[in-house]
Amino acid sequence: MTAASLALHSRRFTSLLATSTSVLSRIMSTHLERTNGNTREPEVENCTVSSITDISPTVKLLQLAPERPVTFKPGQWVDFFIPRTNMVGGYSLCSDPQSPNLELAVKYSTHPPAHWVHKTCKAGEKVQVRVGGDVFLEPDSRVKVVLLIAGGIGINPLLSMIRAGVDTETKYHLLYSAATVEELIFFDDLEKLTASHDNVTVEYFITKGTVKLDNLVKANRERISPEAVNKLVSDYKSRFDESDMRCFLCGPPPMIDFLSKEIKMKCEYEKWW
Fold it and tell me: How far is CA 264 from the centre of its chain?
């Protein structure tokens, strides 16, 4: 092996090691550690689980009834305090900020809060939440177009933005990727929103399996690519001033790492999960 080949292999190994170390560090750290520098509301709010339903093979939807109104901005998340454990979860809110109830879509994992939601939680349980997060769409935002890019469970905060903005003049265009059709959570909600509001449009991307729903005519059998996003960005830039455009990205960290470097406009995102 030549010196040049050895140098190339060394660089690749160093890059792989750095990526693995970053991922491992994220997995081993807690939600509170990962979000230590984020803005939080001072108050912890008491809530009751009013319902818990399956919305995909791996995701449950929690509806929480707060003891008093909880204010948040579309895109924010909550610290989630559950009974009988000191481990604190972190979940993005998917509900409309105007709704009296809070909604959290929680994907199954062995992480204690998520495991509790899937294996133990039932209606009537008492929990607590605290609102936090620095990436959100201001309720009085007057931007003309919002580009939203979601991967899997990352749909949560972006759905909240859409729900909050359906009756405004802002255009919302969502690119939504999931492994399978079954994991396109909130598919029915999104289809109803697009049917009843001209300012909401959605493109679906399926990365595994086959598309079996006859009405899923907009599904792309591929990942969301920089080329697909930048085609939209180019079109928007030809019609709008950049100050009238926002782009939000939420999904698995590798997806965020890749797309955020390739998209030709500023993308707003957080990597805390």
Answer: 21
Amino acid at 215: N
The token pair at 18 is 């750095």
DSSP string across 67-113: SS-----TT-EEEEE-TT--PPEEEEB-S-TTSSSEEEEEE--SSHH
pTM: 0.86
- Tell me how long the chain is: 273
Q: Rounded to an integer, what distance in angstroms lies between the CA atom of residue 134 and that of residue 33?
A: 16
Tokens 């994907």 — which residue?
Answer: 107
DSSP secondary-structure letter at 222? Answer: S
* Structure token pair of residue 144: 């003309």
Q: How far apart are CA 218 and CA 103, in angstroms?
A: 27
**What is the predicted pLDDT for the residue at 272?**
58
Structural contact between residues 225 and 255, judged by C-beta atoms closer than 8 angstroms:
no
Residue 180 token pair: 């399978």
Q: Residue 80: which of 119, 126, 120, 39 has the closest Cα? A: 126
pLDDT, tens digit (0-9, with 9 covering 90-100), for 138-164: 877 889 999 999 999 999 999 999 999
CA distance 67 to 55: 25
Q: In sequence order, which residues have a C-beta less than 8 Å from that of residue 87 and are 6 or more positions away? A: 30, 111, 112, 113
> How far from chain centre, in Å, is Cα 14?
30
In angstroms, the CA 95 to CA 102 distance is 6
Strand partners, 151: 177
Residue 32 is encoded by which pair of tokens? 């509170």
At residue 271's C-alpha, the angle toward residues 210 and 61, to 5°, is 55
